[in-house]
Design goal:
With 363 residues, the protein is α+β, with helices and mostly antiparallel strands. It has 13 helices and eleven strands. β5 and β6 form a beta hairpin. The radius of gyration is 23 Å and the shape is globular.
Length: 363
């Protein structure tokens, strides 16, 4: 199948090449921002500029509901929606340029890996994790601020309010556990550092289950976008009703799989870490980590899993604390710190969330 046929299949129709001066300006800006945002990656700004300036870019007409930019790995080109403002760097454009920098190819030029995403003969794996990680990098690169958004009856914080917000939130929860340095290194250089670190902290089985769930979130949301486009163009009222029903079904699925994944992330980590607590100082660190985790989670009507888990772990910590106090061979900290463990429970219930941005048109 030709590149033109592949593009048409994606709904992309090329209009014109992007002028060289515009590409160079974009390459310079993005390379500088990447180097400034990720000093720990030791990126070479000149190398990045050369690589991005050689990238083929085209303006194109693209389907509604998809991003303003699209990296087409089969011919290593970027397609930009006609009319997109290139005078300032857009998050979606940075996202697609990072995809180009991620690409690992074999000696024949075939793409074998894109960050976390592995391309097999019959299946693509970890697409959801990769898209979430890359968008977090793009948002960080452009210093996007976190805000509370609402999708699929879920309210949650994210630095990417309109582009892969659910994936970004879940991947940010994973990165809270490992540290962002592991996430960014693996995403940019297509390494297994993040996978190994997360598996070490939470278990390999949990890692693979979470990654599969992230793929489900990615492909389900992609299907919802396709159905919404069909809904807008369909003239038959009977068919539009069927489409709307199917969208509602997928919305419920999205909410369910999201909460399942969130629960798996924090329980797999904090259950594992609890077993490692040997001193009251360990307990204090654990308490703080668990308390601060609430700043990352999504909430929904009727969702109590995290709150219940938190209270149970506070009770378990109290028992663990008493056990350690009775073991004089272990290093102790002041007992009154335990009081703060219990006071934190009250704070958890009374904490007020910031204003919510409603971004979901399908109620």
């Amino acid at each position: 199948m030709s590149i033109e046929s592949d593009l048409r299949k994606e709904g992309i129709e090329v209009i014109a090449p992007v002028p060289t001066l515009t590409i160079n300006s974009l390459a310079k800006s993005v390379s500088e921002k990447l180097c400034a945002a990720f000093p720990e990656l030791n990126l070479d700004g000149q190398d990045l500029f050369i690589e991005l300036s050689r990238l083929s870019m085209f303006t194109a007409s693209m389907p509604e509901g998809v991003a303003e930019a699209n990296y087409f790995y089969k011919n290593s080109s970027v397609y930009l929606r006609e009319g997109v403002n290139l005078s300032c760097v857009q998050p979606t454009v940075v996202h697609e340029l990072i995809h180009h920098l991620q690409a690992l190819r074999d000696k024949d030029g075939e793409l074998i890996r894109l960050g976390f995403c592995e391309f097999g003969e019959f299946k693509t794996y970890a697409m959801g994790l990769n898209e979430g990680a890359v968008q977090l990098m793009a948002s960080h690169c452009l210093k996007e601020q976190s805000d509370i958004v609402k999708y699929y009856d879920l309210s949650f914080p994210t630095t990417s309010q309109t582009y892969y917000p659910l994936l970004c939130n879940l991947v940010a929860q994973m990165a809270y556990i490992t540290g962002t340095e592991y996430l960014y290194k693996s995403a940019f250089f297509s390494t297994d550092d993040f996978k190994n670190r997360f598996s070490e902290l939470c278990g390999e089985k949990a890692y693979f289950r979470i990654v599969r769930n992230l793929d489900t979130v990615f492909y389900t949301e992609e299907k919802i976008v396709q159905l919404k486009n069909q809904f807008l163009t369909e003239k038959s009222s009977q068919k539009t009703q069927k489409i709307a029903t199917r969208i509602d079904e997928l919305r419920k699925k999205m909410k369910e799989i999201f909460l399942q994944t969130q629960n798996l992330i924090f329980t797999s980590y904090f259950n594992t870490e609890f077993k490692k607590l040997n001193t009251t100082e360990d307990i204090e660190v654990y308490r703080t980590q668990l308390y601060n985790y609430q700043n990352y989670i999504a909430i929904a009507e009727g969702y109590t899993t995290f709150h219940v888990y938190y209270i149970n772990q506070m009770a378990n910590l109290e028992a663990k604390h008493e056990s350690i106090l009775n073991n004089t061979a272990l290093v102790l900290v002041q007992p009154n710190k335990l009081i703060r463990l219990l006071q934190a429970i009250r704070k958890l219930w009374t904490k007020q969330t910031s204003s919510t941005v409603e971004l979901d048109n399908w109620k």
